Amino acid sequence: MVRVLVVDDSQTSRKILINYIGKMGFAVVAEAANGLEAIKKYRTAKPDITLLDIVMPGMDGLATLKKLREINSDAKVIMVSAMDDELSIKKAIQAGAKSFLAKPYDPQKLMAMLTHIRTELRHEAPAKSRGSVRKLKTQ
Question: Model pTM?
């Protein structure tokens, strides 16, 4: 099952996302209310996908995204924000986000994004396994 971390300073927004994600057959392994907490939870929960709000107190979502990408350059992150403007979307994608989900949430768009990333993960897993086999053979 695909593991998801939900990060939003709004408890209500987190609960809505967690509810949608659970109904869609994904496992929410952790939630965080700010960027620093998100980084800690990312390290311990090791999610496959992170849903990350842009506007949060302290470390905002874009700064958090950059830190997550330092931890794992292949981190799969969907940015979430009520700011559905082109500049916010562009900044998020340039920082390494896979997708951008506007508030209020559209469950069909969320499902499409999660399913797309799940498909990517399935295609990456065999390639990583083959790489490991090659490394073992050459050692």
Answer: 0.89
3-state secondary structure of 35: helix
* Euclidean distance between CA atoms 85 and 66, whole angstroms: 20
What's the confidence (pLDDT) of residue 125? 74
What is the domain partition of the chain in residue ranges? 3-138
CATH architecture classification, 3-138: 3-Layer(aba) Sandwich (3.40)
Residue-wise pLDDT tens digits, 40-61 = 999 999 999 999 999 999 999 9
What are 25-32's contacts with CB under 8 Å, separation 24+? 25/1, 26/1, 26/2, 26/114, 26/118, 27/1, 27/2, 27/3, 28/4, 29/3, 29/4, 29/5, 30/5, 30/6, 31/5, 31/6, 31/7, 32/5, 32/6, 32/7
